[in-house]
Structures are given as structure tokens and as C-alpha cells.
Amino acid sequence: MEILAQNTIKNSLFVEDFLRRIFLQELKKQEFSEILTLCEEFEPKFKEHAFIKELCKISTDDVLLDDLRYEFNRLFVGPRRPKALPYESTYFDYKNMFGTQTFEVRAFYKRAGLRVDDEQFDKFPDDYIGFELQYLYFMSYNMLAYADDDKAKFEELAEQKAEFVSLHTMWFRDFAKASSEATKLVVWKYFGEFLNLYLENEIINLAPFSKK
């Protein structure tokens, strides 16, 4: 079984770090600036994506940044029911939170030595997109750490990540579609395209490690 090139893993790592921060950090000016610095390490097809270009424009305009935050809340947070629900379970079962997927992803986190702390769990279940992206980032980080020195461990981690992607990220497509269709700002339309680009890239990269 092949070992992914380190540059390939690093790109996944940076994109996952970027995406998870969008959902786990407040999009205030300082945090927003820090998030954008990660884009400098992306491969060209990610770095030159319209979503990144639009974010760079917004970063220099306080009014646009306020609009971005307002629309983020309208789409993903509330107080009314979000237009694009950021929880895996809501795309299955009875379209409610805390479904089967919540507990399935928790098992993946546990196997990786991760857990959602009680304070966060009160606000977001385990299958919140920010947590799923954080898990994917964590797996890429560990894969990179073992890529040179422990092929067996690397393959074990790659297989776990491939399994998670297969079982628990296909809903990203529906989430991206909901985001693009519901938004009033073009930047969030581009976000849906960017998320799909990331997902398709991971499916291809992890195909050699998939058990299917």
C-alpha cells in the first residue's frame, strides 16, 4: 500500500485547519486574519479558488466582514433555525440533531483519543461540522508524523481516516448545496464549492486506503 506524498498530506492538513477554524472560532478581525494566513500554504487549486479570493477582499473591509459574520449566523447558527444545518444527523434519520451519526462519529473520536468536552457538547453534538473537520485535521497531523518512520502506523491512520470520510463526510455535499442555495452573499456560494473541492480531493487521496 502506498504512502501519500508529504506535500499531499500537508495540503489536507492546512485546508482542514482552515475549514475547522471557520466553524470553531469567532470570525473577528484578528481571528479572520489568522485563518487567512493558512491559505498561503495551500496547493494552487485551493489557494486560487474564488472562495479564498473573496475572503481576501472581505478581510480589508470592516463592513463586509460584519456582513460575513451576520450571514454566517443566519446560515449556520440562528437564533432562528439555520438555513444550512451544520450537523450530520440532520441530513439523515428524521432530520433531527443527536441521531445515529452523532454516536457513530463519537466512536471514531474515541478511537483517536479525542472527545468533545462537556461545555461544548451542551452547544454542539459530536457530528457538528467543526468537530468532524477537527477530527480530520487531527488524523492528517498524525499521518504526517508517522509518514517517514512507521509505515504500519501511517497505514492504520490512513485507513481510519478513509473510513471516516466514506461513512461520515458525504453529507458535506448536501450541506454545501444548502449553503449555496440559501445564502445572500456570493462568498458563501463559493464556500460550498470550496468544501466540495476539499471532499473530492480527500476521496481521491484516500482511495488506496479505503476498504471498499
TrEMBL record:
Q: Which Gene3D superfamilies match?
A: TorD-like
Q: Which SUPFAM superfamilies match?
A: TorD-like
- Tell me the keywords, alphabetical order: Chaperone
The keyword Coiled coil is annotated on this UniProt entry = no
- Record keywords: Coiled coil included? no
In Swiss-Prot or TrEMBL terms, this protein is called Molecular chaperone TorD family protein
Organism, scientific name: Campylobacter gastrosuis
